[in-house]
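Hi R.,

Here's the chain you asked about this morning:
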Amino acid sequence: MKWHLLLTDNVDQLDTQPDALVTKCGLHFGREFAVYRPLPFVDHTGFTETVEEEIEFVIEAQRSTEGAYLSAEEFIGRWNLSRLVGRRVAHLSGGWRKFLGIALFANRKAPAKCFLDVTSHLADERIRVLLEQLESQSNEAVVFCEYDARLIFDLAPTRFSLLHEHDDRIESVEGFPVKGTKGTTGTTATTGTTAFYSNYEQY
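And here is the predicted structure, written out as tokens:
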């Protein structure tokens, strides 16, 4: 799996122009991306009541189309959701409802996935679980674009390559950022990338 962290000069695009960002990713990689982006109060199909019913419904739909990585039973165990299965989705906190939606999206088989703003309102442990599960999958490319890019970088189990979106295009940034302690800039393989990544802290 190839991990990419997309940094943008205008992070407000995550709200105002998410489709444009995804289109640019598609042009850069030459492939179509499956996309997760948060929609307030809509991380639920609306066709089910409980968490267990929602999981079974979505995974059955996945299996009938492009495919699913895990069965409903496997999914509940791997994503540590067993204590939630009997609860109504509508009664979950916003963070847990969002995590359920992200987890179900991640379970969908796709050659490339784009995650927009997954870190907002999620505890660090939930983000770690997401990244660990993605690492075990065979997606060819995973792109993250976040308001808090440093958070997801610090929690990732593997290194990211950097992409820079500016002037209506996406470019690869030479070198790889290297993890330091949380909240520090760290170092990279090239001086230019160090300066660029440090500048991104303004967001």
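One quick note: The chain has two domains: 1-33+110-203, 40-109.

Cheers,
M.
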